[in-house]
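Appendix B. Extra example for self-study. Work through it before the problem class; the solution is given directly after the inputs so you can check yourself.
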Amino acid sequence: MKPILELENISYSYHSLHGETKALENISFSVQEGEFLAIIGPSGCGKSTLLSMIAGLIQPESGTIRFQNPNGTCTYPKIGYMLQKDHLLEWRTVYQNVTLGLELKKEMTKENLAIVEQMLSDYGLEQFRDKTPSELSGGMKQRAALIRTLATNPQVLLLDEAFSALDYQTRLYVSSDICRLIKEAGKTMIMITHDLAEAISLADRIIVLTSRPAKVKRSLPIHLTTSEYSSLSARNAPEFNDYFNLLWEDLNT
Ligand code: ADP
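Solution. Structure tokens for the complete assembly:
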């Protein structure tokens, strides 16, 4: 596998009238194509800053971010960003919400709309296409947000605490459900979470950041002995507790 993304010695500080806040210091890591990477770290350490930087929303103060596309070019890939809130628009129907990205990009082609139709059916939202977001459950809203994100066919998906607005039980189900769907679509995923169990049960690898300014403390590949891709069976895997204890110690020392 080739890395699709490489970060080399990334540093970043926020500047305000009250002074400087150093958020990231010398961060280096790479992400393989099709990999699911989780990033964890203490609250306020710089995780969202790092994700915004990968999304190209802010530029590093020093260091480089390189994307390597499968066709060999180094142009920025299409990025999909899923946030904590689903950001569905209440005045638009589910269908109008999931096609919003395509509409804004003027990509409402027959082929793209056929893909949306397929996803609405695959994700169990076909019968809800004319409903408004408030008529959907939390899990359904998150699925609609995912369809909207995937409709523009991003190569890399960034998830910033994308499931934390859901209640615990829904979250267990929706997180593994959505991550399975993204994985099946062959996308590269980078997820920020404060939930250790979520990171262990879903990701291929976990990067642990130190408290601010964030540095990479550990890069931990996850191998769980499970027969299926589900949050619950992952949590019952024999290796789960050892990973949990190791990461817990990392975050608390
Ligand atoms: P995390 O996602 O790990 O909780 P953030 O990346 O949001 O952390 O923030 C890292 C640090 O940078 C925090 O201490 C936060 O207060 C500070 N910060 C974030 N955004 C800004 C901003 N726009 N201006 C100044 N400081 C900021």
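Self-check: Strands lie at 3-16, 19-32, 36-40, 62-67, 79-82, 156-160, 188-192, 205-209, 216-221. If your reasoning did not lead you there, revisit section 3.
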